[in-house]
Specification:
This protein is of the alpha/beta class. Among the domains are: about 150 residues, HUPs (Rossmann fold, 3-Layer(aba) Sandwich); about 60 residues, SH3 type barrels (Roll), CATH 2.30.30. Strands 12-15-14-13-16-17 form a six-stranded antiparallel barrel. About 40% of the residues are buried. About 0% of the residues have low confidence.
């Protein structure tokens, strides 16, 4: 097969490309330029797509003896991921940009271009497994639970899975680094990227303030309706947040306060005690199935955050939406996040959360 290996410049994508080559495929390395003004050097473990990263990817490709190209997808990344991120926060929701990137960039724009150029598949350094099942290829969790990335791949459909390779799904992170060192890759000890790649300083509130400006509003007690403080913009808050609320100590009774709702139209942030955060009913839309859509009510595992714990649940699909009932209450679930459904280790599909509640 002819395979495009997406090479970020990190250790994971380097070993993934090498493994696909070892498997006998014809491999071309591709680095995605996703920033319109990429930094020259990486100055922390945050962020990605610097010129340094592109150079690291090229050196790995040279060592493997494979062709290497840089594809400029900065304009589409800005539109589909960054602008979407800002718009979601402005609407009072909390998006996961990694899922949007996988859906719109790595397994749409990249895969579509690769297929148009005559390639058969795309390989990435994600920690997940694709196995052949009775109804086609299935997406499963990685063997290393600490690195499992099946949650952020839950937006892939069956057709995309049929053209995807995740060569690292059967290996631990330590094993990947050891293999990279054995292969002589200079990136063997390179730190992992984390947080949001287009906010390299990690200051999400500051990033949103620069994009959306200040929009002063009220902090309101969710039970009494009393105004307990002010904020510079509802877009700077997310459900479950505790730090940075700016509530005067004289307004508190000793119990910590959390954001329990972001009312974007009214530019209000509702706060309350921890007991108001727990929900066990989740509604979702923008359904994506990694195989056949479930029929009727099915028992599943539900994961609500990239590094969250799977919770036993039932799911019922109704038209364009899904209702997920959790076996236990979970705190800090925000509209805009994704719920990914599992059957054992297999990813069933995902949905974008539109609302939460409590069962009667």
């Amino acid at each position: 097969m002819r395979v495009v290996a997406a090479m970020s410049g990190g250790v994971d994508s380097a070993v993934a490309a090498a493994r696909v080559l070892d498997a006998g495929h014809e491999v071309v390395g591709v680095h995605l330029a996703l920033s319109r003004s990429a930094a020259t050097l990486r100055d922390s473990a945050r962020g990605c797509c610097t010129i340094e990263d592109a150079g690291d990817a090229r050196r790995v490709a040279d060592r493997l003896g494979i062709p290497f190209y840089v594809w400029d997808l900065a304009e589409r990344f800005e539109r589909d991921v960054v602008d979407d991120f800002v718009a979601e926060y402005a609407a009072g929701r909390t998006p996961n940009p990694c899922l949007r990137c996988n859906e719109s960039i790595k397994f749409a724009a990249l895969l579509d271009r690769a297929v148009a150029l005559g390639f058969d598949a795309v390989a990435t350094g994600h920690y997940a497994q694709v196995v052949d099942g009775p109804d086609g290829r299935e997406l499963h969790r990685a063997v290393d639970p600490a690195k499992d990335q099946s949650y952020v791949l839950g937006v892939l459909d069956a057709e995309q899975l049929a053209r995807s390779f995740f060569p690292l799904g059967d290996t631990t992170k330590d094993g990947v680094r050891a293999e990279a060192a054995e292969r002589g890759f200079a990136v063997a000890r390179k730190p992992d990227s984390h947080d949001i790649c287009f906010i390299p300083d990690g200051d999400t509130r500051g990033f949103l303030a620069r994009r959306l400006g200040e929009r002063p509003g009220e902090l309101v007690d969710a039970v009494s309706g009393e105004v307990v403080g002010e904020h510079a913009g509802a877009h700077g808050f997310t459900v479950g947040q505790r730090r940075g609320l700016g509530i005067e100590r004289s307004r508190l009774d000793g119990d910590p306060r959390y954001v329990v709702e972001v009312d974007a139209p009214a530019n209000r942030v509702l706060v309350g005690t921890a007991d108001l955060l727990g929900v066990d009913v989740v509604a979702g839309e923008h359904l994506r199935w990694c195989g056949p859509a479930p029929a009727g009510e099915v028992s599943v595992g539900a994961q609500l955050r990239a590094h969250g714990t799977e919770v036993p649940a039932t799911a019922r699909v109704a038209g364009e939406g899904v209702e997920v009932r959790l076996a236990e209450r979970v705190r800090g679930v925000a509209p805009g996040q994704s719920v990914v459904l599992y059957d054992g280790s297999r990813v069933v599909g995902s949905a974008t959360i539109t609302g939460t509640g409590r069962a009667a």
